[in-house]
Amino acid sequence: KCSPALNGEKYLSGKDISRILGLSIGTLQVWRDQGIIPYIQITGKILYKESDVIKLLEENYYKAGL
Length: 66
What we know:
Blueprint: E1 5-6, E2 9-13, H1 14-21, H2 25-33, E3 40-42, E4 45-49, H3 50-59
Antiparallel strand pairs: 1-2, 2-4, 3-4
């Protein structure tokens, strides 16, 4: 599936994020409500910047054994 792109940035739907990370749509809603994950909402459609999702994962990465 192709993600919409603008100026080299990919935008992912909640369904995409849910599938990629194994999260429920409800968990994404909670994360949005708590300000954990940035998002864009246009006329009811919610999109996530791929770079924001990667940043969130990297900021919460913990190396084993440390």
